[in-house]
């Protein structure tokens, strides 16, 4: 059994030697961090716990690939972030396909999910117009009008950023 005051590197080493208790201590140490990340990225409360659990399972299974055990926290954060992004891309793809089939509510859900990202991008491009609701509305209006041209629904976020930049340049 590992001492509760052990460093991440020590707990990783003890886990690699076969102690599940040591990994449990790592999980206890980083549960809050992973949960907060999942809550920030995934809006569905029921999916948050799934993301947290999947992150720890993946980390445990891949622990032998961790080259710098003292960086366990950052490595775990990256794993959890990738799981969140994968889920968001999958969800976006489903919503895009529904919206392309004429479901306006699905597009509204997409717009709600990506509103903050578009607003942030526009604020970086034009700090003086960061809260320009008309500019943001124009981005989503144009995206809705061109939705049928989106070939890869999983790329919705990047595609929307391209539209935002184009609208900003036209209005700039």
Describe this structure in words.
- By secondary structure, this protein is mainly alpha-helical.
- The protein folds into two domains: 8-86, RNA polymerase sigma factor, region 2, helix turn helix motif (Rna Polymerase Sigma Factor, Chain: A, Orthogonal Bundle); 102-171, RNA polymerase sigma factor, region 2, helix turn helix motif (Rna Polymerase Sigma Factor, Chain: A, Orthogonal Bundle).
- Helix content is 74%, strand content 0%.
- It has helices at residues 8-16, 20-41, 45-61, 72-100, 104-125, 133-145, 156-171.
- α1 crosses α2 (20-41) and α5 (104-125) crosses α6 (133-145).
- The mean pLDDT is 86.
Distance between the termini: 62 Å
CATH superfamily of the largest domain: RNA polymerase sigma factor, region 2, helix turn helix motif
What is the residue-mean pLDDT, rounded to a whole number? 86
CATH topology of the largest domain: Rna Polymerase Sigma Factor, Chain: A
Q: What overall form do the CA principal axes indicate?
A: elongated
Tell me the β content.
under 5%
CATH architecture of the largest domain: Orthogonal Bundle
How many helices in DSSP terms? 7
Number of self-contained structural domains: 2
Task: Show the helix and strand layout.
Layout: H1 8-16, H2 20-41, H3 45-61, H4 72-100, H5 104-125, H6 133-145, H7 156-171
Helix pairs in contact: 1-2, 2-3, 2-4, 3-4, 4-5, 5-6, 5-7, 6-7
Quick summary of this structure?
By secondary structure, the protein is mainly α. It has helices spanning 8-16, 20-41, 45-61, 72-100, 104-125, 133-145, 156-171.
């Amino acid at each position: 059994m590992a001492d509760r005051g052990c460093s991440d590197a020590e707990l990783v080493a003890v886990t690699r030697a076969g102690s599940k208790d040591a990994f449990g201590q790592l999980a206890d140490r980083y549960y809050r961090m992973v949960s907060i990340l999942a809550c920030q990225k995934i809006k569905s409360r029921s999916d948050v716990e799934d993301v947290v659990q999947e992150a720890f399972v993946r980390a445990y299974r891949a622990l032998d690939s961790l080259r710098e055990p003292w960086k366990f926290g950052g490595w775990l954060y990256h794993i959890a972030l990738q799981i969140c992004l994968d889920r968001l891309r999958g969800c976006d793809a489903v919503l895009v396909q529904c919206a392309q089939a004429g479901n306006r509510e699905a597009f509204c859900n997409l717009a709600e999910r990506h509103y903050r990202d578009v607003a942030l991008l526009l604020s970086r491009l034009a700090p003086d117009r960061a809260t320009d609701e008309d500019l943001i509305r124009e981005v989503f209006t144009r995206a809705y009008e061109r939705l049928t041209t989106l070939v890869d629904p999983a790329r919705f976020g990047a595609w929307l950023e391209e539209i935002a930049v184009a609208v900003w340049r036209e209005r700039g």
